[in-house]
């Protein structure tokens, strides 16, 4: 339905900071229904907490406690069999002065009756300033099954860019944070990132691929690759080939060989 897609994209592009959208792509909720819950009096929202966790060279992640210590998951979540990584965007304003407040608002919407998910849908968030934030509880410890608008087809971990990338690409800092996070996750779950690496699996169900259908998709994919949605926006999707190359180069630099000896992983750093 080209007409409907055009209308949704126009709606996304027309949203301002006063009418932020809390979900990805063309599924938008605005106004009081998605208001960020007020933090408790003793919870610092001014950046003073900074409970950063160093997960690799040049990659530190704000744990969930840094934005949602008072917002536990609504129910228990399962571990995931990770075979690929999905890039999303939040479809909110590109002006993000306070990632904590924005993520709390996303939590409020994702756990509301409108979505009914147990927690924020995404495993990690990347802000325009390049900072990386743990999303769904437990994601720093290991794989956690995520959720996605249009259906979770399974076998993935989700990284969400905070911003709207229908027409505007992510900042250089956000791209660096995203590719570092994707490379770390690819190494963590032993995913092949070489050239046009892809994975094949049986869908658990989405509006694009019904449960039981066989899917083949790149190791680093866009939300729209597995679901009918505009997410993560045309400007972001145009950069996916570049991001895949950066992810592979970063991951490849963590291995070294000595003559005919097998490769050994060394420090995780950019080439």
Can you characterise this structure?
With 271 residues, the protein is α/β, with parallel strands linked by helices. The protein has one domain: Lysozyme-like. Helices cover 23% and strands 16% of the residues. It is built from 6 helices and 11 strands. Strands 1-2-5-4-6-3-9 form a 7-stranded mixed β-sheet. A two-stranded antiparallel ribbon has the order 7-8. A two-stranded antiparallel sheet has the order 10-11. β10 and β11 form a beta hairpin. The longest helix is centred in the middle third of the chain and has 17 residues. The N and C termini lie far apart (44 Å). The N terminus is likely disordered.
Question: Do you know the CATH topology?
Answer: Lysozyme-like
C-alpha Rg (nearest Å):
18 Å
Alpha-beta content class: alpha/beta
Q: What composes the largest sheet?
A: 7 strands, mixed
Number of strands: 11
- Output the CATH homologous superfamily: Peptidoglycan recognition protein-like
Second rung of CATH, namely the architecture: 3-Layer(aba) Sandwich
Percentage beta strand: 15-25%
Provide the domain count: 1
- Overall mean confidence score, pLDDT: 83
Overall body shape = globular
Low-confidence stretches are 1-34
């Amino acid at each position: 339905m080209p007409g409907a897609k055009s209308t949704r994209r126009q709606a996304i592009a027309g949203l301002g900071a006063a009418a932020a959208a809390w979900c990805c792509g063309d599924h938008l909720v605005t106004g009081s229904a998605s208001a960020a819950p007020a933090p408790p009096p003793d919870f610092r929202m001014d950046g003073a907490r900074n409970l950063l966790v160093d997960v690799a060279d040049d990659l530190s992640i704000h744990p969930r406690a840094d934005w949602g210590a008072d917002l536990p998951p609504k129910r228990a979540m399962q571990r995931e069999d990770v075979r690929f990584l999905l890039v999303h965007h939040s479809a909110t304003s590109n002006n993000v002065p306070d990632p904590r407040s924005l993520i709390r608002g996303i939590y409020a919407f994702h756990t509301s009756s409108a979505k009914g998910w147990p927690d924020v849908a995404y495993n990690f968030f990347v802000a325009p300033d390049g900072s990386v934030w743990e999303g769904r509880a437990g994601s720093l410890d290991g794989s956690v099954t995520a959720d996605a608008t249009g259906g979770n087809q399974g076998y993935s971990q989700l990284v969400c860019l905070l911003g709207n990338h229908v027409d505007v690409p992510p900042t250089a800092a956000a791209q660096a944070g995203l590719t570092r996070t994707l490379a770390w996750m690819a190494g963590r779950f032993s995913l092949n990132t070489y050239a046009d690496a892809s994975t094949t699996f049986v869908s658990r169900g989405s509006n694009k691929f019904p449960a039981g259908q066989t899917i083949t998709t790149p190791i680093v994919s866009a939300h729209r690759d597995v679901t009918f949605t505009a997410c993560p926006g045309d400007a972001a999707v145009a950069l996916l080939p570049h991001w895949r190359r950066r992810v592979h180069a970063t991951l490849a630099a963590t291995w070294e060989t000595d003559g005919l000896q097998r490769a050994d992983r060394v420090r995780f750093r950019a080439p």
